């Protein structure tokens, strides 16, 4: 009787390195890694700010430093920055709607909500430009602080140094997000995502935009409220 060769049947591997076990798309995973690294930078800046502030005897009162509103001839503490915050949060809502429209392969709504998001970002940057210009005319800049401490004593320039550095760094991120969303809008209008059969790039851009909005919540709290 002829010898029968043993047949070895190998069990299929659950993951052979070709696809993620968690089914996370590569580009989205890399975006999360980038946002994680960026959060360390913002975290370091805010921790340095908090450490310096609470190690300092006196600090300017935000209600007096940020009490101007365009067109109003009376003190309006934090009203202008509240408007800025509302605009940015509203743009985050329109970004969510753009991502959802992309999942539904609804090009028309993707275009519409991306335009709204871009407009919101430009409005926020315009508001920040006005605020910086106003503070500059008040005498505030890196190395210069015209605002006294809340107790009336002379304040150091730490307040303005941290303010312009951190809000400027955040503003650069908002500007980058506007550029990214503009590129996404152009690609959508040129049917690039329709040809690919998905709108994953819109979702990645949305992750970045939401991160920028979330960081502003911490910046707003640290500088304007606390």
Describe this structure in words.
The protein has 226 residues and is mainly α. The protein is built from 7 helices and no strands. Helix 4 packs antiparallel against helix 5 and helix 5 packs antiparallel against helix 7 (200-225). Residues 4-13 have low confidence and may be disordered.
Layout of helices and strands:
Elements lengths: L25 H29 L7 H4 L13 H25 L3 H32 L19 H32 L2 H5 L3 H26 L1
Helix pairs in contact: 1-5, 1-7, 3-4, 3-7, 4-5, 5-7
Return Rg in Å.
25 Å
Helices and strands: which structural class?
mainly alpha
The major beta sheet can be summarized as: none
Instruction: Give the rounded overall mean pLDDT.
Output: 90
Secondary-structure element sequence? HHHHHHH
List keywords for this structure.
226 residues, mainly alpha
Give a brief outline of the structure.
The protein is an all-alpha fold and 226 residues long. It has helices at residues 26-54, 62-65, 79-103, 107-138, 158-189, 192-196, 200-225. The model is unreliable at 4-13 (pLDDT under 50).
